[in-house]
């Protein structure tokens, strides 16, 4: 099933009276990039958690955040580095004497130096914490995946409809082609009749010119290739594996065929069709940029 690269998942749990949350967000990215923010001292979990995420996400920038969110029985603690505070006080006194400065070095002034304070995380058994984090991340990834699948289904539906429009416009061009040749023949014949008057018109030469024009403006091969690309598109959007990059490449090829049709077909009606085709393909390409 097609999946979007955009999604969100979150799970929370309480371990030994401390609440822990795991959040996962994903956005578009050409490759897979996993960014993790873990509580201090828990970086050893990073690789294992990345493997869990990689099993569900093949592309996208994925941001993972695991954090304490408080609890009734345990909370963060404020710690004071007394040694560093004394050093600050001593250095400031020396500077005061040296520069003959007035004023007092009080607690409020020392409190402005953030380095002497640190916040300690709640105390939780390490193994219990690790088990809880793994469980939360697995759950958050499941939530993320469901959201990505749901959005992917909507993207797929929209793109299929637009490719169907491409097919319809393609049919209009195919039906228009014989008339383009006939209109050119009639215009050329009328122009020559106006130039030579009652003189005999070399119909053979006129037909030769018509054949040259028809060959130069023939877009049958481009229409056949465009139809083949549409069939490949239909098959890809139904595939189980990630197809975002393949769809992006296929749309580039479809765009090239449409550009060639526009440059070869010397006809105002076909030019209008080409503009419509380009508009639909551009909208599909915008959607494909979000497909995994």
From TrEMBL:
* Names of required cofactors: a divalent metal cation
Entry coiled-coil feature ranges: none
Give a Pfam family name. YicC-like_N
Endoribonuclease YicC-like C-terminal domain location is 173-292
InterPro entries the UniProt entry points to: YicC-like_C (IPR013551), YicC-like_N (IPR013527), YicC/YloC-like (IPR005229)
Q: Domain Endoribonuclease YicC-like N-terminal: where?
A: 2-156
Reading the lineage from the top rank, the first entry is Bacteria
**Keywords, A to Z?**
Endonuclease, Hydrolase, Nuclease
The entry assigns this protein to a family as follows: Belongs to the YicC/YloC family.
Q: What is this protein called?
A: YicC family protein
